[in-house]
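Most newcomers find our protein records easier to grasp once they have seen one. Sequence and backbone structure share a record, each on its own labelled line. Nothing more is needed to start thinking about how sequence determines fold. As an example, a complete record with its sequence and its structure tokens follows.
=====
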Amino acid sequence: MNHPDIRFSVVIPNYNNGATLARALQSVLDQSFAAHEIIVIDDGSTDDSAAVAAAFGTRVRYIRQANAGVSAARNHGARAASGNWLAFLDADDIYLPERLAAHARWIAREPDIDFLFADQEYRTPDGALLQMAIDACAAGRDLLARHPGAAEIPIAAVDFEACVADGFAEIRTLSIPHATFARLGGFSPDHKIGEDLHFFIRMYAGARKGGVVARPLAVYYIYPGSALRKDPVGAQRGFVAALESLDAELRGAAGGLRRGWRGKLRQGRLSLAYMYLRQGRRRTALGAVAPLLWRDPSLRSLRDLASILRGLR
């Protein structure tokens, strides 16, 4: 397959992932549709990551920066990229062989597409399959039901609400025009948790149409030592904070998109409150859901508050 007008720059942020970096890089080099370039942004690693990348020679651009977080690393890679489409991969995950080709075929037919995603496998470090991305969420199951057996599923503006409220968007399967990423200002460096969803919501706000390839194109490995698992309550707080920060920006957004955001925020705050209850932090749990009531003084918000109050007994 040859589409010379489609040039993917694959950006890989890396922080002390020398043990898995070669696997990630090889998965990009093994693509049936060759990447225009592979850019590793090293975020201040102290392990052997530089030597691992150097073993790939000129096939990989290795750029080092002082430690500034994954968002800053991805943004740095995007600024350094020369391709007209961007794709991202974390240094401890992999692409499946058709990751770029499947999106290139779609882009060749529909060059004005705003973004593309795909299904994704969630696996343990030893390779055991945990779940798939699309059928694990309400928006994905709805799309599959409306397009039974389809290899490619269009995502229209009317779908954005559901995609935000309970969607399957994953950074490893995102393909986005370089110009669009630049216009959006990239990932917010203010958020270390939820930075990808924060970006996706802003992307939806400016998009007209997208699509999803209904088969897995990447593998996300779930590690017990990840930040999400070491401190789940702190991670949930960060996730809620990332969502809350979009309030002002979304006030002029289409009603459906804002409803989707409010639904995602509601679930985030409820999950945080129940985490606090399990820790015996009752007042903090109430504080986590109270904003739902003054933002949306509805029967549903009262029920949310009541569910937490029942947990206090």
User: Anything to note?
Assistant: The chain has two domains: 8-223, 230-311. The chain has a mean pLDDT of 93. The CA atoms of residues 122 and 265 lie 24 Å apart.
